[in-house]
Amino acid sequence: MEIGKDYIGVGCGASIINDKNELLLQKRNKSPEKGYWSIPGGKVEMFETFHEAVKREIKEEISVEIEIIDLLGICDHIISDEKSHWISPSFLCKIIKGEPKIMEPLKHIDMKWFSIEQLPENLTITTQYALEGYKTYKDKKGEKK
């Protein structure tokens, strides 16, 4: 039995925004959505909260510690063609310690900061949902997108 294929997987993601209004993205090197840019994240483990999971996953994937600012939304990450189904909340986060670096090169082949106004076209479904949540968050705060 495989998570996300034989039964619904539970994941989490971090929309990490820096002081320059840039979003940190990783380029996926495996399915689902191989070759697409994605916010960092991963699966929630048994008896782990979403907050614990996203902090652990970010430490494992990019070697930084984060602060969670707010929940941006929950994504129904369904890709029928790849037989993949995950439920994933995305959180707005900031780095509080460390410099991001790729820690899992088999999973991710690149990592870059992108201006919120100039993002790549090939974004994962979870990243697209997180960006919509970020726009709503900024609108509620009365801030410029």
The topology string of helices and strands comes to: EEEEHEEEH
Low-confidence stretches: none
Number of strand elements: 7
Q: State Rg.
A: 14 Å
Tell me the overall shape. Answer: globular
Tally the helices: 2
Read across the widest sheet, the strand sequence of neighbours is 4-1-6-5
Q: Could you give the distance between the termini?
A: 42 Å
Q: Decide which structural class fits the backbone.
A: alpha+beta
Largest sheet, if any?
A: 4 strands, mixed
Proportion of helical residues: 10-25%
| Amount of beta strand | 35-45%
Determine the mean pLDDT. 93
Per-chain topology:
Elements: E1 9-16, E2 22-28, E3 37-38, E4 41-43, H1 50-62, E5 65-79, E6 84-97, E7 108-115, H2 125-141
Parallel strand pairs: 1-6
Antiparallel strand pairs: 1-4, 2-3, 2-7, 5-6
Short description:
This protein is α+β, with helices and mostly antiparallel strands.
Sum up the structure in keywords.
145 residues; four-stranded mixed β-sheet
Textual characterization of the structure:
- The protein is globular.
- It contains 2 helices and 7 strands, in the order E-E-E-E-H-E-E-E-H.
- The mean pLDDT is 93.
- The N and C termini lie far apart (42 Å).
- The relative contact order is 0.27.
- It has a 4-stranded mixed beta sheet. It has a 3-stranded antiparallel beta sheet with strand order 3-2-7.
- It is α+β, with helices and mostly antiparallel strands and 145 residues long.
